[in-house]
Design brief:
With 342 residues, the chain is of the alpha+beta class. The chain is built from 12 helices and 10 strands. Helix content is 40%, strand content 14%. The strands form 3 sheets. The chain has a 4-stranded antiparallel beta sheet.
Length: 342
């Protein structure tokens, strides 16, 4: 957590680093390479521990090392003691990466992978349990579907690309809304885009799907406003009113209010964030319950249709089972991911 406010993704599983490298090759960067290389040093014998240092000092030492390798934008999300190691969660390019540091601050590893029989079996059992079918989705005549995202989070964009064809197919048979996580991780540009989308969805809802579909291609806001024929005067008025109502600019300018001094608050959907316990992007809520789903359109159609008391004919349609790639663009990824921002 970030001071108890930003929840670490509950989807992290054993062998998570390996899965991230397989499923998100576009994120492979200096930080990951450094972590893997130094992790090898530990396995080769760098396990001795001298004088114990504080969590903060361990985090400071780690960040100094990471930034010396060129990852200047990396930041610490949380620190905690985990047995004989410090667990430090580092955010880099929107990806939260757990790193374990020895108590003397001299060695680090990208994760703890069990090497002996009992521990391996236990880890595999835990992984299998984590992938069991989720609790049954609450049913209703018209399911309420809320997707919480950050507009520049690559994984939020990924799920939006998957869910948009579902929303288009089911139309007014579901109550579908894009909502926004209560803090921003990608600067003022993200805050402005969040508010822009909030206003288009609120006051020009018939054009929102067109705008979002365009935006997901390359993030070219001006081109998409023209393509979707957004009323610019109406949009500007809404943005101005929302800024005052939700203290958007005030929160951004008041760095003392930022979460852990790094993430500006974004309060447009704050009440719903609190209601559902939203912690990151993406978070899918159906009929008031958080739901886990694949990010491809077929999986999302299946889970949303499971929330109907009586499924409409549209639920029999076949949508793409290809996983959208994280970030902008309509390319597909060879493997699924449960990664998130936050």
């Amino acid at each position: 957590m970030v001071n108890g406010e930003i929840k670490e993704s509950a989807r992290t599983e054993n062998f998570d680093i390996i899965n991230k490298l397989r499923g998100n090759l576009w994120i492979v960067s200096t930080i990951v390479l450094v972590i893997v290389l130094v992790g090898v040093l530990i396995l080769r014998g760098g396990s001795s521990v001298g004088n114990v240092i504080s969590e903060d000092k361990a985090a400071e030492t780690l960040m100094s090392f990471i930034k010396s390798q060129g990852a200047e934008s990396a930041s610490v999300v949380s620190t905690e003691r985990d047995g004989n190691l410090y667990k430090i969660v580092v955010n880099y390019n929107g990806e939260n990466i757990p790193v374990y540091v020895t108590l003397d601050g001299k060695y680090l590893a990208s994760g703890l992978i069990p090497l002996t029989g009992n521990e391996v079996a236990e880890a595999q059992d835990n992984s299998n349990n984590a992938q069991e079918a989720p609790k049954e989705v609450p049913k209703s005549d018209k399911p309420k579907v809320e997707l919480f995202v950050m507009s520049l989070c690559p994984y939020g964009l990924q799920m939006e690309k998957g869910i948009l064809p579902v929303a288009v197919l089911l139309k007014n048979k579901i109550d579908f809304k894009i909502k926004f996580v209560y803090y921003a991780m990608h600067g003022k540009t993200e805050i402005d885009e969040n508010t822009r989308q909030y206003c288009i969805q609120k006051e020009q809802s018939d054009k929102f799907t067109s705008y979002l579909s365009c935006y997901l291609k390359e993030g070219k806001t001006d081109d998409c406003l023209k393509e979707a024929k957004i009323d610019s005067a109406k949009l500007a008025s809404c943005v101005n009113n929302a800024d005052k109502q939700f203290n958007i600019s005030a929160n951004y300018n008041d760095k003392n209010s930022w979460l852990s001094g790094r993430f500006p608050r974004y309060d447009v959907d704050l009440a719903d964030n609190k209601k559902y316990g939203v912690g990151g992007s993406p978070t899918l809520i159906i009929n008031g319950q958080e739901v886990q789903s694949g990010r491809d359109s077929a999986s999302l159609l299946k889970v949303i249709c499971s929330a109907f008391n009586n499924q409409p004919e549209e639920c029999k349609q076949t949508l793409s089972s290809n996983n959208p790639s994280p970030g902008f663009g309509y390319s597909t990824s060879g493997s699924a991911t449960t990664a998130s921002c936050g």
